[in-house]
Amino acid sequence: MNKIRNKNLWEIYRIDIKQNLRSKSFWLYTVFFALFVAVMFMTGITESQVIGFVGLSRLLVTFTQVSMVILPIYVLISTVRSLVGDKENGVLEYTLALPLSFSTYFWGKFLSRFTVIYLPVLFAMVMAVVWGIFKSLEIPWDLFFLYVFLLASMIFFFLGLSMYLSAKSRTQENALGISFMIWIFLVAFMDILLIGIMLRWRVNPEAIIGVALLNPLQVFRTGSLILFDPKLTVMGPVSYYILDTVSRETFIAFSLLYPVILGLIFAILGNRYFNRHDVV
Amino acid sequence: MEKKTLIEIKSLVKRFGNVRVIDDLTLNFYAGERVALIGQNGAGKTTLIRSILGLYTYEGYLRVLGSEPRKHRQKILMEVGFVPQLPPPLRMTVTEILDFFSRIFNIDRQIFIDLANRLNLDIEKHINKPFLKLSGGMKQKLLVSLALGHQPQILLMDEPSANLDPEARKVFFAMLKEYRPDSLMILSSHRTDEIKGLINRVVEMDLGKVILDEPFATIEENLESKKP
Questions:
Q1: Which among A11, A22, A101 has CB closest to B74?
Q2: Which terminus of chain A has fewer Cβ atoms in its 10 Å neighbourhood, N or C?
Q3: How is chain A split into domains, by residue range?
Q4: Contact criterion met (CB below 8 Å) for A94 and B88
């Protein structure tokens, strides 16, 4: 039975990937990231300097900061409609009248979404490195690998959250509305705004930093700065608490694992809901 | 000889909010039966079909081929063919759908192509088109071929001939007539006239209950006796 389940998971994965490869939005998304890297090279970002950083490091940092803005909302909008959209238009009724388990369908979709969202990002980063080698720039491999995994980890979190919302929502409008609210909420609970609250209402700093570090978007931001700015000076007083509490290596491990674990919890809850309720 | 029960339903209830769309339904379906499931819109026909397919949660007792349809989906649905009322907007191409079905049911895709050809659908001409770009009739012919191709023991069809042209409709009912005699067919339809040569039992539903359940021959006899 497990063999059949794995075979069917692969079938759902494959068919979903093929459908995504035919969609214009996927190619627009891929071209966007590729063009973004190309434009950064052409505008000479590798020759500009920030906190002593030049070359490919500068490019990768900029790329990752821009991805932090674009990816969460892209993952939410494109994924949150997947299950509920299939439910609304009758695709789910037909597909799940085939001998496929609900979990097979759910995880097949999850994995294919992860692939089509992550691969263009990875491709753009690899392209940047290849271009850097071609231009004889020094390659910051530690930064490159940190960002490769950090971006995968952030995508994984937002994907898990989106699949959960999609499984629970009754309509696409509903799912989109909730996902926007969650995104705004996550943006609001970043250190910059929280420190404002701390100063305004004299809230305990540890509590504020604790709340900020529960936010995967904040964890990503801090994780992405930690190699580039080892003392986290751009984060001001927050760095004092973070680096005083944990070592740099521990924080990197936390920033890679925490979003994945949270995303997995949401995905498991989404799959559980999908298995236990009406699917059409 | 005792009839083999393929679908067993006892005190089945399906609620949407406070509304009981299936209301304490008790009904059995047997091997060899050709059932016309009739009733007004909202009678509960589609909800019953979806419950049998394991797409809905429910209260009460429901067994398909002896198993609970939500827990043993894969085992049951290997033996079920389904034609929905409206073709779903699948973005897969025709060839991808054929490959997908052939791998899921582990059968040669040529079987589906041959069935489609019998329904006058020249599938090779449209093989690379996305399913949703086909005409209504073509979609229906392909869905019928896919439902019959793996020779399931249970066929559930929700208004299966609605989009078919008269010629294809004739071929379709001929195909159903010669379909494996030990199978169960449940056809949800508004037009009993065109399926009367096929069916041997009529189940009429209203407001989630069965209001008529008779062998088709009895219904015909009654109609004959009422004629002046």
A1: A101
A2: N
A3: 2-276
A4: yes
Six-digit token pair at A154? Answer: 């952030």
Q: Report the distance separating Cα A103 and Cα A114, nearest Å.
A: 16
**Contact call for A99 and B73, based on CB within 8 A:** yes
- Give the pLDDT confidence of B138-171 residue by residue, as tens digits: 999 999 999 999 999 999 998 888 788 888 888 8
Give the Cα separation of A99 and A101 in Å (integer): 7
Q: CB distance B74–A22 less than 8 Å?
A: no
Q: For A74-84, what is each residue's pLDDT tens digit? A: 999 999 998 99
Tens digits of per-residue pLDDT, B172-199? 899 999 999 999 999 997 767 778 888 9
d(CA A166, CA A171): 9
CA–CA dist A93, A223 (Å, integer): 42
Q: Which residues contact B179 (CB under 8 A, 6 or more apart)?
A: B148, B155, B185
A99 interfaces chain B, CB cutoff of 8 Å: yes
Class of the CATH domain delimited by B1-79+193-228:
alpha beta
Main-chain phi, psi angles of B210, to 5 degrees: -85, 125
CB pairs under 8 A between A and B: 76
Q: A97, B92: Cβ pair inside 8 Å?
A: no
Neighbours of A218 (CB within 10 A): 23
Look up residue A272 and give its two tokens: 């559980």
Rounded percentage of chain B residues whose pLDDT exceeds 90 = 77
Determine the pLDDT at residue A1: 61
Candidates A99, A276, A277; nearest CB to B77? A99
Distance CA B126, CA A212 (A): 55
CB contact under 8 A, B74 and A100: yes
Q: Which two tokens stand for residue B191?
A: 């037009």
